[in-house]
Amino acid sequence: MKIYQKSINELEQIVQRKTMQLSDLKVEQTVSDIIKKVIENGDSALKEYEEKFDGVKISDFKLSQGVIDSAYDNLDPEVKDALLLAKRNITSFHEKEKATGFIDSEQRGVLRGQKVLPLKRVGLYVPGGTAAYPSTILMSALPAKIAGVDQVVIVTPPQKDGINPAVLAAAKIAGVDSIYQVGGAQAIAALAFGTESIARVDKIVGPGNIFVATAKKQVFGQVDIDMVAGPSEIGIIADSSADYKQIAADLLSQAEHDKRARPILITDNLELAKAVDAEVDRQLKVLPREKIATASVNDKGFIAVVKEIDDMFTLMNTVAPEHLEVQVENPTQYLNQIKNAGSVFLGKYASEPLGDYVAGPNHILPTGGTARFSSPLGVYDFVKRTSFIQYTKPALEKEAKAITTLARVEGLEGHARAIESRFGKFYD
């Protein structure tokens, strides 16, 4: 990994360059063409794209309940137990996120309030390809169900040998209502606009490749989305008390996701930096996904060495990582110095995969520096808020002059006259 020893200002500039996300115009155009064709041709377009991109001919997109039940019944008991443990912890954490509305009647004659309502239908994108992600189903479907969403459906790329049984079992455990064998940008288009087989949804959530992320961005407005997710990333803050072997392992836990994943270490100890660099090289040689992780480490990873512990947090706040590990002595005392991170892991025993699977907090997190302004997926992503007001005539009369004054300042005479009509004043 490249090791940088520069001023904090120079390091911040390096970080900003390395985390910058630029649009790929070719991908944008390809995705736009796919979406247009799905809108125009529906299921026939989906079948064409699945055969072209996934090499699978699909006659019926919707998986039968029998196939799902069989996958659950025949799942390895250890895998099933792990999924059930994850469900319990994810549920207990996300139950605490539930919000309620309110009613305010503090002013005489005025009733104000807010209703919190669940979305009706949500689509979950579950990646296929080089890995299966049953954990992603739990992380997206369970908060939706806790929020009260009526219909939760999954789209996932078809596989020549069938969809991974752990994925199907996780869907059953999470209470998913339907599973459709369709992936890529075409799946996002189907969820957003609907086809003969797949009804449109109100919101699309879940990670995917660059085509999926671009499709989500393009359909936003037609439907809501959780975020435009980029490659996975991990930032680690470590001092001399940290174990270099553990740090290397944690960096590679994210590097193995994607060639564009970002593994980043910031430390105040040059010897630790050198030890981690050498250990990453050693562990890469025995990692099954060596090719992917090596590309990530070489192209996107780096180690920054700073002088002070405060500088580590200043620089990492600029990174705004998806996952942030704090491997220093007494890590909780620095929690207030963390301003930008999707999820934080404190201490040597809070390794990032703990959050990926069983701890409970969501693992669908803001990437690419967007933790500066966005949050992990949660129950709050599956509800909408509707406000309401009621005024008596005396209450409205008390505020009518302010309303009509502001309306006329804005040149909206009709607004002012609508208020005045309540008091018998009409214009011919």
* Order of SSEs: EHHHHHEEEHEHEHEHEEHEHHEHEEHEHH
Provide the CATH topology of the largest domain: Rossmann fold
Strand content: 15-25%
Radius of gyration: 25 Å
What's the domain count? 3
Strand order within the widest beta sheet: 1-11-10-9-12-13
Kindly report the name of the CATH homologous superfamily of the largest domain: Nitrogenase molybdenum iron protein domain
- Distance N terminus to C terminus? 78 Å
- Mind telling me which CATH architecture of the largest domain this is? 3-Layer(aba) Sandwich
Helices, by number, come to 16
Shape: globular
**Number of β-strand runs:** 14
Structure, explained:
This is Histidinol dehydrogenase. It catalyses: L-histidinol + 2 NAD(+) + H2O = L-histidine + 2 NADH + 3 H(+). Keywords: Amino-acid biosynthesis, Coiled coil, Histidine biosynthesis, Metal-binding, NAD, Oxidoreductase, Zinc. The chain has 428 residues and is of the alpha/beta class. It has 3 domains: 150 residues, Nitrogenase molybdenum iron protein domain (Rossmann fold), CATH 3.40.50; 201 residues, Nitrogenase molybdenum iron protein domain (Rossmann fold, 3-Layer(aba) Sandwich); 32 residues, no CATH class. It contains 16 helices and 14 strands. Strands 1-11-10-9-12-13 form a 6-stranded parallel β-sheet, sandwiched between helices. Strand 2 and strand 3 form a beta hairpin. The longest helix is centred in the N-terminal third of the chain and has 19 residues. The N and C termini lie far apart (78 Å).
